[in-house]
Amino acid sequence: MKLSIEYLPNNRSDDEGLNILRQISDSLQSAETEFVCRISDAAFVIAATYDNYTRLRPVLKEMNWVRTESYNPLLSATEGIHMFCGLTSWTELDCWICNTGRAEWFKQAMENELQSDCYRAVVPLPVRFKHRFQVDCYDCYALDDYTATHGIQNATGYDEFIYRFKEGKPLAGPWEPVRLVEQALRREQNLAGKLTDAVLTVIPASNFWDNQRRFGKFCSLLCEAAGMENGFDAIEITRSRASMRGILYKSKIENLRIHYNRFRERHVFLFDDVCNTGTGFNQLADALVRYGDVSSVTGIFLGRNT
Description:
The chain contains nine helices and 14 strands. It is α/β, with parallel strands linked by helices. Strand 2 and strand 3 (43-49) form a beta hairpin. Helix 6 crosses helix 8. It is elongated and about 65 Å long.
């Protein structure tokens, strides 16, 4: 089967992208197979004939594409078409991949679904940092705004995404938050060049189990995707403590054991889901600089409470 690939102007079509497209092609050998895939920057959406949907799923899973399934019942009933979408690991690939004589019909159906809100992406998530700011003397980055109170009437889709992350229940699985942060890091010129010499660690949660559930898998996958060293276990919780959100003048790190030798002369990316006052981040960053002899400390957050 030969795919028709339509690259849009001024975007990359390198070996990595072509290899992924070959994997898709090789997984769908039947000449009767019909599907159209739209890859736009960091996102994809696929419409495929229903009988071949199960063939596509393991391919996407192997490539660690975040995915969520949804379809218009009317389209599904009349044409047997299944649609799904998610986030890719690429930063600039932009193309259509078609293997049907009805490409224009497929394209229009996909556009109609996206515009009508019948079909939603993982969530309308950012893949670039919206906020660049400083806490004391440290550079910090946050993907988007955050509203602090769970369940309020004006909570956004992104607020809900962060609530799920805090609970360890990403909507589309563990790769969902990983892809967002990976994409943003690769797009930020000041950070992209540091990735291979960086150690990723976290501002720990108030107890061991919340910390493990929230950050353990996330750190492992993000370091795998971005080429950083995983420093999740380099900061240990020695005992649980009560939440200290909003408290400015007490130590938020006195229950931590920090293995400073893991950070010596390295760039440290210090991650947390939300930056509120920045007190916990500032205390931990100061300790790493004072005792760890680090090259730099940078704060990375999913959201900033503004």
